[in-house]
């Protein structure tokens, strides 16, 4: 572990030195305009500087390549993040937050004191409390609780740090997802992945720095804005890689065109662009030359990394992948491949967790159990696979939804519902983190007897963001972008490190 | 000779610099607050002593606060006595615990000296330059002695703009570029004015001298494509999209607004009128249909249809967005900060935000899925019915009644939407904008006003015959106002039922009975309920027929609608309250509409509503409106604003590169051009500054990377729409069809995916595949992918600047998107010269770039051609696949297509140079 940190610090120093010398190199290159070493990994400008710098004397490497890697201001604990979001909001009460007392109160009216001044999405009047619909056991060395909906999870329970009392102030999917990923319930802010890619660039220049994979048949309720770049340049937005059709839009050459011919096309374009540069001296032309080279390489690298067929059979089984289909298992395996290849931020969205009890798939007992079945094995596999490759120490895994679910049974429209379900609930829910810089096998935060509110170790969405940024090497209060006369932060004016789960 | 003058200038400049330096240190020289003091306060002090934090009880945001007693009980600044002022003492303090700025580097001696002298001179508080406008700006005169004598000077000085630019160039000793070549400037001009390259005929006429540059400009400004190009810019500000946004992101019919914007640009609607109609067209006397459509500007806000969301929360979000957008669009001011606290840098107070909000807080729209009020468009046949009703009222009633009925037939307001019904028993609010009642169901409309009407209007869907509805005053035991039977109605129906007249606000209790329905079965969905002043002439023959016609119009189904603004009648007025720390759930003091104190004055003749507010915006005393427009139009053309922070003209903005020019153009826009945007644009493009070549050298980019001095012409990558439009235009595919619903050109399968929304991307047929980008359907959660890649936004909120990026994904679009391959193929086919490969390539290149091909470039493309040709000759199958557009694909045409595609990927093609 010590070695690992030393390595990261060493890398930071080397890169900073490189950045300085590299800048001179580019400068002289631009002045003399010889051939540019386009395959180099450029180092670039300081993202903490004003975006509209008044007097940049020379253009920086970031002008040529906006994804050029940058060293974070502090020694990072991890290089990459894999964020697993269960869109629709999973029920903490059937997965990780065991509430035996709630079983005792099953079927009783929810106390008025809890309902006063509260707003729910669908619950009306006085709902009834509903006991856990799953069975719980203490697992692993840590003895943390895991339900029988997640049988494989016990294998990795000692790797994760639970956050049992997360809270959010949003209780509708769209705004809550936006809040969870951009720090604001309204549109227009950059997502965590965009911040990370903007701040750090991406080590693999042949792949997008921020990749999004979706499963469950739908994109998240809040749409593509949850991986948007907000006011940051659009190059930092997440690139959705698809399991059907082109993995990245327009990545495939047109039918009938060979790779060689594409190479020649790009060579001809760049040759002419170089002539244009001699005339106009506009550094944008140099950047474009660079981008075309990168596009060509990306066309090879993306389909390669997105192809899971070549993985060994035991790995495929470990995750439970179904090649050719869109599945969470496939996406977990892809996430491992992507971080292995140096992608900075991988965001997985799995849709279908909104267990209101209005339909069978959305029931808390049957539907939720199925959904858990879809993620249980792949998540355990992802953690173990990263671990066996020595990657878990430099990767952060975050798991959660946009909020949690009520201890009360939903009574939509004042009627008895067809199935058992729980309404949206933001006061207290469970998330977990695992990987580099995270304590293993701990549980932080507590909810009350029925799981309605946090009573100890409550953490906010901003706290989670502050912690993720910290692990990547940023102080969330210093990491800002100036836009419309204001320095914006991912954590707005809030956020505190969750020190209790930091190793 | 030239050299001598340069040396002369150098010596002169040096002397001036010495004089300036001396002046600035001369102790008696008056210190200027706005230019010398405010920047120091903003950069070094205000983060801790400003609008958000007032550490030690000391704030430097407002004059009053700066001189008020701090926590110590004494004021920190004592005018006239710097040495006695704690403010200065703390700056000089040696103890790091006491020295300010706390834990930050010490201020420089010069800064401390300036602040000291400012206080000694009386600490006069001044206004930031952005908040006042001079009465007159003189055009700088250029004397022969001072001016450059370079050969092109006569070329450069084309109009007064150039005097301003040259004055700065002189002072920086930089020489402007010569004028761009004719073909280059013609392409630049056409792209800037119309978003398309010029037609061959126009270029020929200009190149031959038959058409002057000015005549070319006028011709381009008169083209319909001018409106399409500039509308694209405005629609970013207006956050125009074809869907509602948020989770479900259902489609929205609002394209008539987009067409209104295009027309407004084309008829050069003066900016003041353009503003009034969009912000308050509904409040103008007898608004025309067009003026009502214009108000859709503020109906482009998002509408949240997600189940379980609180309509009031999202209505409030909408109103906040309108306030913020209005200030961002018209005033270059981020007022959004003030929502939660006093502005951190600009002189706005917390409650001032809510006073502004009060102007916008009284419109009828309430975040319902129907998006009401929506303006209806009757067919000429249907319009006859509408006219029949209105004629009857003209004959028999008052002007007020005429307006009531006209409004109701046009956009169905004012109505009480059912989401405000309360205490629903045996029923529920079904989350799709209706209250559902069962047998024995009831609910209450609190504080409703029946307008002394003899009828209630009810919009509903009914699932059973014979439902008995009773409306009582007060509660279940109150007196019956009306009782009637409702029969089955599958579609939304508006019916009229008689009620007892009462003329007061009261609670209306609504109940339903139907024994035929099962327990808990939905018998009726109620969408809204309304009370109109009775139609006049009830005692005259013909009334019943007219009333029937009226009801018929209310039940006419509309193919096209557009959401608009409509103001609340007096009995529906909302009070506006301050939100404590920006939270809509904790509302405090009630406020009245007014504009911020620190901005221009309010004329008491203006009504205190949106119309008066719009008049305040376009008042000539408001310095921000004209400056904002000038700055942004300049930015559209040069890729950089005169104030580089085009989002912000205020105390945090960058200083203008040419302050006098900005003011001169602003005054001229208002006083001489009478707010004509075409005149402003024309003036800018006629300047010698604009007409310069954009060629440069690495040294010059070093010296002036952002072209702040304008010693070269603009060189900017084209916008997302323009890149596609241009490819279609040069290949000959572009359709010039205007207006109408958004079109869906080909995009990859599976891009559209939204929960609870079955809408599909249905690929357009025929010429609709080749329309300009401004007509492409824009779904907020999933915009047209190639536009997104080229930095177009999703228009969820107001976009002032599209940040221009340069990424590999862009290369993939122009290389691999079938749209560009089809365009390449068509370009190759249309420029192919039989048996002459060189000429074919040269033609293709010229058609795309408007330039003759150089031997080197021809050589590069020829080599590509040869390689393609041999590949496609060898592989017949690949040839057929590649050229699937063509019935008889030949390897030659395939090879030319590859070449044309390379041309469409050249920097010079993607860039306006």
Automatic annotation (TrEMBL), chain A:
- Pfam families referenced in this protein's UniProt entry, alphabetically: DUF1501 (PF07394)
Enumerate the InterPro entries for this protein: Alkaline_phosphatase_core_sf, DUF1501
The protein's matches in Gene3D superfamilies, at most eight in alphabetical order, are given as: Alkaline Phosphatase, subunit A
UniProt name for this protein: DUF1501 domain-containing protein
* Species the sequence originates in: Ulvibacterium marinum
Q: Which residues form a coiled coil?
A: none
């Amino acid at each position: 572990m010590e070695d690992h940190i030393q390595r990261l610090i060493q890398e930071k120093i080397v890169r900073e030195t490189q950045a300085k010398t590299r800048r001179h190199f580019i400068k002289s290159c631009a002045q003399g305009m010889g051939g540019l070493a386009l395959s180099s990994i450029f180092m670039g400008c300081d993202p903490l500087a004003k975006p509209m710098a008044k007097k940049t004397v020379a253009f920086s490497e970031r002008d040529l390549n906006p994804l050029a890697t940058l060293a974070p201001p502090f020694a990072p604990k991890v290089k990459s993040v894999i964020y697993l979001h269960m869109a629709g909001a999973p029920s903490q009460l059937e997965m990780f937050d065991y509430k035996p007392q709630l079983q005792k109160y099953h079927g009783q009216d929810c106390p008025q004191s809890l309902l006063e001044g509260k707003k729910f999405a669908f619950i009306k009047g006085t709902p009834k409390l509903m006991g856990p619909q799953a069975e719980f056991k203490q697992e692993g060395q840590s003895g943390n609780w895991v339900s029988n909906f997640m049988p494989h999870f016990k294998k990795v329970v000692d790797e994760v740090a639970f956050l049992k009392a997360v809270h959010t102030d949003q209780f509708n999917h769209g705004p809550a997802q936006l809040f969870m990923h951009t720090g604001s319930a309204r549109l227009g802010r950059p997502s965590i992945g965009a911040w990370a890619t903007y701040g750090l660039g991406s080590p693999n220049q042949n792949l997008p720095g921020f990749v999004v994979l979706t499963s469950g048949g739908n994109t998240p309720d809040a749409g593509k804005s949850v991986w948007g770049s907000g006011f940051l340049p659009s190059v930092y937005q997440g690139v959705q890689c698809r399991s059907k059709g082109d993995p990245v839009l327009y990545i495939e050459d047109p039918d009938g065109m060979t790779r060689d011919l594409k190479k020649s096309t790009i060579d001809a374009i760049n040759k002419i662009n170089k002539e244009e540069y001699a005339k106009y001296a506009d550094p944008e032309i140099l950047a474009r030359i660079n981008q075309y080279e990168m596009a060509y390489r990306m066309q090879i690298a993306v389909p390669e990394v997105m192809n899971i067929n070549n993985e060994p059979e035991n790995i495929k089984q470990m995750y439970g992948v179904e090649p050719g289909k869109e599945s969470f298992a496939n996406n977990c395996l892809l996430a491992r491949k992507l971080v292995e290849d140096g992608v900075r931020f991988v965001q997985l969205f799995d849709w279908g967790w909104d267990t209101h009890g209005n339909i069978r798939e959305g029931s808390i007992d049957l539907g939720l159990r199925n959904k858990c079945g879809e993620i249980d094995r792949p998540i355990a596999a992802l953690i173990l696979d990263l671990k066996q490759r020595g990657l878990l120490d430099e990767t952060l895994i975050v798991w959660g939804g946009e909020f949690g679910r009520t201890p009360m049974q939903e009574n939509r429209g004042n009627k008895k519902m067809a199935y058992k379900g729980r309404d949206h609930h933001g006061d207290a829910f469970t998330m977990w983190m695992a990987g580099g810089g995270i304590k293993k096998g701990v549980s932080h935060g507590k909810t009350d007897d029925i799981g309605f509110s946090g009573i100890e170790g409550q953490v906010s969405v901003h706290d989670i963001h502050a912690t993720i940024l910290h692990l990547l090497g940023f102080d969330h209060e210093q990491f800002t972008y100036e836009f419309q006369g204001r320095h914006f932060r991912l954590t707005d004016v809030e956020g505190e490190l969750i020190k209790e789960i930091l190793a | 000779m030239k050299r001598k003058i340069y040396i002369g200038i150098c010596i002169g400049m040096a002397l001036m610099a010495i004089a300036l330096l001396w002046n600035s240190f001369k102790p008696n020289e008056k210190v200027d607050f706005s230019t010398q003091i405010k920047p120091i306060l903003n950069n070094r002090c205000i983060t801790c002593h400003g609008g958000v934090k007032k550490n030690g009880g000391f704030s430097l945001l407002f004059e009053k606060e700066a001189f008020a007693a701090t926590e110590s009980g004494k004021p920190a600044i004592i005018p006239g006595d710097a040495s006695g002022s704690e403010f200065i003492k703390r700056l000089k303090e040696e103890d790091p615990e006491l020295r300010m700025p706390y834990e930050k580097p010490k201020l420089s001696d010069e800064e401390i000296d300036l602040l000291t002298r400012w206080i000694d001179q009386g600490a006069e508080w001044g206004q930031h330059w952005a908040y006042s406008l001079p009465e007159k700006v003189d055009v700088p005169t250029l004397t022969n002695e001072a001016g450059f004598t370079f050969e092109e000077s006569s070329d450069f000085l084309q109009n007064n703009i150039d005097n301003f630019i040259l004055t700065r160039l002189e002072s920086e000793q930089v020489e402007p570029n010569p004028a761009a070549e004719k073909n280059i400037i013609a392409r630049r001009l056409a792209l800037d004015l119309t978003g398309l390259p010029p037609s061959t005929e126009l270029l020929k006429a200009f190149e031959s001298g038959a058409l002057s540059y000015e005549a070319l400009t006028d011709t381009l400004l008169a083209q319909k494509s001018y409106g399409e190009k500039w509308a694209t810019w405005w629609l970013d500000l207006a956050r125009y999209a074809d869907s509602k946004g948020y989770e479900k992101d259902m489609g929205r019919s609002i394209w008539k607004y987009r067409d209104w914007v295009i027309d407004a640009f084309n008829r050069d609607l003066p900016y003041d009128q353009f503003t009034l109609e969009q912000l308050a067209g509904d409040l103008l006397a007898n608004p025309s249909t067009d003026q009502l459509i214009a108000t859709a500007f503020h109906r482009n806000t998002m509408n949240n249809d997600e189940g379980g969301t609180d309509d009031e929360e999202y209505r409030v979000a909408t109103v906040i967005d309108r306030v913020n957008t209005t200030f961002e669009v018209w005033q270059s001011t981020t007022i959004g900060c003030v929502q939660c606290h006093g502005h951190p840098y600009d002189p706005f107070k917390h409650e001032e935000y809510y006073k502004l909000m009060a102007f916008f807080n009284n419109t009828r729209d309430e975040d319902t899925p129907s998006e009401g009020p929506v303006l209806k468009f009757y067919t000429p046949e249907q319009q006859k019915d509408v006219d029949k009703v209105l004629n009857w009222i003209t004959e028999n009633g008052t002007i007020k009644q005429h307006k009531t009925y006209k409004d109701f037939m046009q956009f169905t307001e004012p109505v009480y939407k059912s989401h405000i019904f309360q205490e629903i028993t045996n029923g529920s609010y079904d989350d799709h904008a209706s209250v559902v009642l069962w047998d024995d169901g009831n609910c209450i409309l609190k504080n409703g006003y029946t307008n002394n009407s003899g009828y209630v209007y009810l919009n509903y869907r009914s699932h059973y015959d014979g439902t008995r509805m009773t409306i009582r005053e007060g509660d279940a035991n109150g007196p019956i106002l009306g009782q009637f039977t409702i029969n089955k109605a599958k579609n939304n129906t508006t019916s009229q039922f008689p009620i007892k007249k009462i003329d007061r606000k009261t609670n209306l209790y609504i109940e339903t009975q139907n024994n035929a329905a099962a327990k808990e079965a939905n018998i009726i969905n109620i969408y809204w309920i309304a009370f109109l002043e009775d139609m006049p002439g009830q005692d005259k023959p013909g009334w019943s027929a007219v009333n029937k016609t009226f009801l018929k119009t209310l039940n006419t189904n509309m193919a096209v609608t557009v959401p608009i603004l409509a103001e609340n009648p007096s009995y529906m007025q909302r009070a506006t309250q301050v939100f404590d720390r920006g939270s809509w759930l904790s509302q405090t003091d009630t406020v009245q509409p007014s504009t911020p104190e620190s901005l221009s004055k309010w004329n008491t003749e203006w009504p205190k509503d949106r119309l008066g507010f719009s008049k305040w915006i376009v008042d000539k005393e408001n310095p921000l409106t004209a400056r904002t427009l000038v700055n942004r139009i300049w930015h559209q053309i040069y890729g950089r604003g005169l104030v580089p922070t085009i989002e912000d003209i205020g105390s945090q903005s960058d200083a203008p590169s040419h302050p006098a020019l900005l003011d001169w153009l602003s005054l001229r826009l208002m006083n001489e051009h009478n707010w004509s945007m075409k005149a402003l644009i024309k003036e800018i493009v006629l300047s010698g500054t604009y007409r310069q070549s954009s060629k440069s050298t690495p040294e010059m980019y070093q010296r002036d990377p952002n072209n702040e001095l304008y010693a070269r012409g603009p060189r900017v990558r084209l916008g997302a729409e323009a890149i596609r439009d241009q490819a279609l235009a040069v290949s000959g595919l572009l359709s010039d069809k205007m207006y109408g619903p958004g079109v869906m050109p080909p995009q990859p399968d599976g891009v559209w995916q939204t929960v609870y929304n079955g809408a599909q991307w249905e690929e357009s047929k025929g010429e609709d595949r080749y329309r300009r980008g401004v007509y492409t359907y824009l779904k907020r959660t999933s915009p047209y992918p190639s536009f997104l890649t080229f930095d177009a936004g999703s228009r969820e909120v107001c976009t002032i600047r599209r940040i221009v990026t340069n990424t590999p994904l862009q290369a993939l679009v122009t290389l691999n998107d079938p749209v560009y391959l089809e365009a390449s193929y068509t370009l190759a086919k249309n420029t192919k010269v039989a048996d002459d490969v060189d000429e074919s390539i040269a033609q293709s290149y010229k058609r795309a770039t408007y330039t003759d091909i150089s031997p080197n470039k021809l050589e590069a493309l020829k080599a590509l051609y040869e390689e393609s040709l041999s590949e496609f000759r060898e592989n017949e199958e690949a040839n057929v696949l590649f050229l699937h557009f063509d019935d008889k694909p030949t390897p030659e045409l395939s090879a030319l297509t590859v070449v044309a595609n390379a041309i469409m990927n050249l920097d010079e093609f993607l860039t306006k140079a």
